[in-house]
Amino acid sequence: MMRYIPIITLLTLLSISLPAQAQTTMELFLRGKELLDDGSNRKDIDQLLDARAIFEQILENDSLPTLAHYYAASVSSDIANTLADRKESGRKREIRAHINYSIDHLETAVEMDETFAEGWALLSTSYAQKITVNPLNAVSLRRKYNRAMSRAIELEPGNPRIILLKAIMDYNIPGILGGDKDHAIAELNRAASILLEEVVENPVMPSWGLDHAHARLGIAYMDQGELEKARSSFERALEINPDFGWVINELIPSLEQLESEN
Predict the structure, then answer these.
(1) What residues make up the domain containing 108?
(2) Whole-number pLDDT of residue 23
């Protein structure tokens, strides 16, 4: 079997031996990440598709392919979530196509680098995401989710994005299937604490999560009726990401509705 060089090694080799190409690739990555972040904030599918096209372009150049697969998959996962949130009839096939795209690219990423913990974690959530459009395969997809998440945790147990993704799942899975809301809240707080101190020196590496951790904590506090804590969490999320459309347009209005009823 062909052996693949881990991502960090690839980054080092690229920066040392191919500085001109690395600079071009870096510019593409940064532009793609910028479009991904802004498109996610605005739930702008056209902008997200533009971001995905950039990561596909990087794949064509065969530069840092593992990360390019990861980000292309991230885009499609966000598109699937955006379409699902709109609750428009007749979009199930389109949503499934974006989830399958995400799974295909993440499976490729972890085949290329079996030590890519963040790829395993995102792959696990894509399997879980697919259950929503393919419930008849829930049992097999749940097994795939568990295997991929276990692999991610085994590789990097202290990675805050892995902790965050696992906590989100634990919060939303029914208790009878292994979910645990109290433990999930504790883990969301742990992820937020680690993310606050995290320093990601290479700008193409994954660094997201702190705003999402506080948004998820706000949801949990709303569910518990702790509205002051919920508002504090949402405000903290907006301090980190002032353009966070999910918080601005959906979560805070939901909180205000609850506040008006109490």
Answers:
(1) 16-155
(2) 53
* Residue pointed to by tokens 């009726």: 225
Q: Tell me if 1 is assigned to some domain.
A: no
Task: Say how far apart CA 169 and CA 153 lie, in whole Å.
Answer: 14
Same domain, yes or no, for 188 and 207?
yes
28-50 burial string, b = 16+ CB within 10 Å, else e? bbeebbebbbbbbbbbbbebbeb
Closest alpha carbon to 163 in 141, 184, 142: 184
d(CA 73, CA 57): 14
What CATH number does the domain containing 44 carry?
1.25.40.10
Residues of the chain with pLDDT under 70: 1-23, 89
**Closest Cα partner for 58 from 91, 105, 90, 16?**
105
Task: For residue 236, tell me if it sits in a domain.
Answer: yes
